[in-house]
Design a protein that fits this description.
The complex is a heterodimer of chains A (101) and B (684). Chain A has 101 residues and is mostly helical. Helix content of chain A is 77%, strand content 0%. The chains are: A mainly alpha (101), B mainly alpha (684).
Chain lengths: 101, 684
């Protein structure tokens, strides 16, 4: 388990699962969880390239940035979802389609 | 002494006062007290005073070469320049006095004659317009303003002749006068344009200068002269346009006196006198023959007329012929002289006939007789005792018109006859001219005394009517007496007292100028000829006048010859004369009817052929074409192309709209699919 491909594979699976979650989930919180998965797939990639691809410490720093960003994103997105719930009494994203043509 | 600007002021006043009276009466006449007649009478009397003061001034100056011109620029387009203005010389002054005198007499006479007329104020308004136009003609110093006033005279004469337009014949007479004048005016206009094209000015003096420099000569000058003369033929009622004047007797009698004695018909003579210097010898010969023939021809018609005014009408035509003849033979001062004397005695005769008709009217009115013709001399007779003033004044003017010594007509007629005789002595081939003249003189004496005898002498034909005849009131007899007084020779020969010579203020103050057209004798040569022919002419004219008067006396006073017998014996000639040589009938048959037919044919061509087929066809084709293009535009272009674009855009929008689901996941999926497609393309 010390070659790049294995990490990239794991990362790709994680990304796909996240994307699948984002696309298929109807629950807003679940969609956010998909997004977290995608971000973590990116983190895995950063670290893998840091270890094998010559990114060195830069990859680590980026991973830390992404984690911070993910935290901030989760905070903002959850606040949005709470607001949606307050307004629509639901967090099903399909029902929140006021801007539809 | 009147000079310079004051003359301009006088002329402006003389010209525009009657116009002012016209304007006031036409707009406010009915609301003014007495229907505004005092406005007109007042204005024309002021005009008379001003004119007479100009006349007095002329006597005091005693200057035959007096001439004054004032003008202002009317149209100035650089190369094309028209100036209007006055030209005042002794001829103008005499004419102004004549016009003002006769016009004011007419105004006064009408006070009684037209009393109670339904359009009383309008009548006075038109008199004012007429006087204005006539003064304009007299004062004009150029052909344009002359033409303008010329037409104004035509219009106002139309209005006055057709004053009683409820009467069909009066309305027709007005139209006839106007249209006949138009015929002459066309020639007049052509003449003016010929002159202007050649010389480039309308001003009389410039025109004369241009002619003497030869800027226009030969046939063109003759043509221009004949054209200008045509205007005079129309206005002065010369053959063959004489037909309107007798019909114009339908107008009120004072109007007849005004128009047919002193003003309108005199305008034609005045025109030929004014323009005399530019007539070429050929044009003058034509003028002489037209005038001479008219003089004799109209006189022969007057013999058989029974309507008192018709006799005077033809007599006027005949006398105008005399004047035109005098111009034609070059003795134009005599023409003007006769114009002056004729204005007085002919106006007097017209007023006299008006007085007689007025009396007849009243008498018939009292008898409730509306069928008897008050103008027919066969219904009169013996009025001498009932209307002494009218009788004596008419006798005086009749003596004057017949050319009896001591009266004015003798002097002027003699001058004309001497002129024509002298002309024939110089040009024996024109021997007919004096024959016309002396023949007309004999006939004039005959029919004028016939009028007097039939009206005032003999037994009353209708005793009942005769009972009701009264002398007219003073307003009417005053002009009669004044004008009869002016028919004596003394007023024309002062400061001399020789009753058989026309030598007097007139001949001293109005000197004939030389003709500027090449080929004409000088004024001196003409005068010499006239001087030599003076005594033979006088003897002859006395002889023929005596013959005429004598025959008339024997026929209508003593009944030595029966007029009816003569008429029967010369049936054909009598009918010719009585029916005025069938001029109206022949004009109708050979001129009006073919013209009407032609007009109808042209109208048919225009309306039925041209309009119907060409114009309407054109319209229909255009209509059809536009329907087709309309179809293409609306149904083709608009429906398919324009609307089609809209429709397809809308359809596309409707379809694309469905992509916009509002579901985040869908959008993301689309993004993913798009990303994949981009990646696939890149890898390939």
């Amino acid at each position: 388990m010390d070659n790049l491909n294995s990490y990239l594979f794991v990362s790709a699976v994680l990304f796909s699962l996240g994307l699948f979650g984002v696309i298929t989930r109807r629950n807003g919180v679940a969609v956010l969880m998909g997004v977290e998965l995608i971000l973590n797939a990116a983190n895995v990639n950063f670290l893998a390239f840091a270890r094998f691809g010559g990114m060195n410490m830069a990859g680590h720093v980026y991973a830390l940035f992404v984690i911070v960003l993910a935290a901030a994103e989760a905070a903002v997105a959850l606040a949005i979802i709470i607001n949606i719930f307050n307004n629509f009494k639901t967090i099903n994203v399909d029902d929140v389609s006021e801007l539809r043509q | 002494m009147i000079t310079g600007n004051i003359i301009t002021d006088f002329c402006l006043l003389i010209l525009f006062l009657p116009l002012l009276a016209f304007a006031i009466n036409i707009f406010f006449g009915k609301r003014l007290p007495r229907q505004g007649d005092w406005v007109s009478v007042g204005s024309v009397l002021i005009t008379l005073i001003l004119s007479l003061s100009l006349l007095m001034n002329m006597f005091m100056n005693w200057d035959a070469n007096f001439s004054y011109e004032a003008q202002f620029s009317w149209i100035d387009l650089g190369a094309f320049k028209v100036e209007l203005g006055f030209w005042v010389d002794n001829i103008t002054i005499v004419m102004l006095a004549v016009v003002a005198l006769i016009s004011s007499m007419t105004h006064i006479f009408s006070l009684e004659y037209m009393k109670g007329d339904i359009r009383y104020s309008r009548y006075y308004a038109y008199l004012g317009l007429f006087t204005f136009s006539m003064n304009g003609i007299v004062l004009a110093n150029n052909l344009v303003s002359l033409y303008i006033f010329w037409e104004l005279v035509g219009v106002s004469s139309y209005l006055l002749i057709a004053h009683w337009f409820e009467k069909h014949s009066a309305a027709d007479a007005g139209k006839k006068a106007f249209l006949t004048n138009r015929v002459g005016d066309i020639g007049f206009f052509i003449g003016i344009m010929l002159i202007f094209t050649a010389i480039g000015s309308f001003n009389f003096q410039d025109v004369f200068a241009g002619v003497s420099q030869g800027m226009i000569s030969g046939t063109l000058l003759t043509l221009a002269g004949v054209g200008l003369f045509m205007g005079a033929v129309g206005k002065s009622s010369q053959f063959p346009l004489h037909i309107w004047l007798p019909d114009a007797m339908e107008g009120p009698t004072p109007v007849s006196a005004l128009m047919h004695a002193a003003t309108m018909v005199a305008a034609g003579v005045y025109l030929t006198v004014r323009l005399f210097p530019l007539f070429s010898p050929e044009a003058l010969t034509i003028i002489a023959y037209v005038g001479g023939f008219t003089a004799l021809f109209a006189a022969t018609i007057a013999i058989t007329q029974n309507d008192i005014k018709k006799v005077l009408a033809y007599s006027t035509v005949s006398q105008l012929g005399y004047m035109i003849l005098a111009v034609g033979v070059g003795n134009y001062v005599a023409a003007l002289f006769h114009l002056l004397t004729h204005a007085m005695f002919k106006a007097c005769l017209f007023y006299g006939s008006g007085s007689v008709i007025h009396a007849m009217h009243h008498s018939l009115h009292e008898l409730h007789d509306h069928d008897t013709d008050p103008q027919d001399m066969r219904n009169m007779g013996g009025f001498k005792t009932k209307m002494p003033i009218t009788h004596w004044t008419m006798v005086i003017s009749t003596l004057a018109i017949s050319g009896v010594p001591l009266f004015s007509g003798f002097l002027s007629k003699d001058a004309i006859l001497a002129g024509s005789l002298a002309f024939a002595q110089h040009h024996p081939q024109h021997f007919l001219l004096p024959v016309f003249g002396f023949g007309a003189a004999a006939i004039t004496a005959f029919y004028m005394f016939r009028l007097i005898f039939m009206t005032f002498h003999g037994e009353p034909k209708l005793p009942k009517v005769f009972e009701g005849i009264h002398e007219s009131p003073k307003v009417m007899t005053f002009p009669l007496m004044l004008l009869a007084g002016l028919s004596f020779f003394i007023f024309y020969t002062l400061p001399y007292f020789n009753p058989i010579s026309d030598h007097g203020w007139f001949t001293e103050l109005i000197k004939a100028g030389d003709s500027v057209a090449p080929g004409n004798p000088t004024a001196h040569e003409i005068y010499d000829g006239v001087h030599h022919a003076h005594y033979p002419a006088m003897a002859l004219s006395l002889l023929v006048a005596g013959l005429g008067i004598g025959l008339s006396y024997l026929m209508y006073m003593k009944h030595k010859f029966s007029a009816e017998n003569w008429a029967r014996k010369m049936g054909f000639l009598y009918k010719l004369s009585l029916n005025k040589y069938f001029f109206d009938e022949n004009y109708n048959r050979f001129l009006y009817q073919p013209l009407l037919k032609l007009s109808r044919a042209v109208a048919y061509l225009d309306w039925d052929l041209y309009d119907k087929y060409f114009i309407n066809g054109f319209g229909r084709v255009t209509n059809l074409l536009s329907k087709i293009t309309g179809r293409i535009d609306y149904d083709g272009l608009d429906q398919i192309l324009v609307d089609g674009v809209g429709r397809s855009v809308r359809r596309l929008g409707k379809q694309l709209k469905q992509v916009q689901t509002g579901r985040l996941q869908n959008y993301m999926l689309f993004a993913l699919v798009g990303l994949i497609i981009i990646l696939v393309i890149q890898t390939i």
